[in-house]
Queue: 2 jobs
Job 1
Amino acid sequence: VQLQASGGGLVQAGGSLRLSCAASGSFHSIANMGWYRQAPGNQRELVARISNMHDENYAESVKERFTISIDIAKNTAYLQMDSLKPEDTAVYYCNGNGYLRGKGWSPGRAFNAWGPGTLVTVSS
């Protein structure tokens, strides 16, 4: 399973960016997709996560500013980031987990995959 992220870049404080993450390869189903970020000198932290049932979780620092969504048919998750702040500057990593193909139409073993990361820079 491969994850490909896009949409990072440079934006001024108060601006918006939209990240996309598409899962490809041979798998049975996606269970959850999410975004994590890592700023220099910091540990990787959860930003937002969404299940295939559209249950959403957000870090406190991004609530009311970021919105995660998922298009199950396209195996793609989106992160709409509004009112960006300089402290949002980080490398953002897409994560997805689910199940590989099993026998017949059944799900097989679980997988957990990461994308290569996309840089988001917010200038003050």
Job 2
Amino acid sequence: QVQLVESGGGSVQSGGSLRLSCTASGNSNSCMAWFRRPPGKEREWVARINGDSISWYADSVKGRFTISRDNAEKTVYLQMNSLKPEDTAEYYCAARDSKMCYGARTPSAYSYWGQGTQVTVSS
């Protein structure tokens, strides 16, 4: 059983930055991802990173967000720069049982979830 604990959310003005962290128990090189749920919308995939630190991004965050991992610390990060009001959401960390990430863009591809952390961007 993998447990994920997120931290780093908060409130920031448009154009600002935040860094989210997700620390996992158990396997340290699983495919891991960040999802978010904007107010009144469905959960959407943001970024994912495989066990070899290859990453993929949703078009809406490409060039602004960076996902990275420290396998020794069992932690995945999401550096969010140039934040926009539309980035406001509850952000969730997720992990698979596999280190492979190919095509894993939907919530159903992930077995383990964190509790979520709120990010609010004001204009």
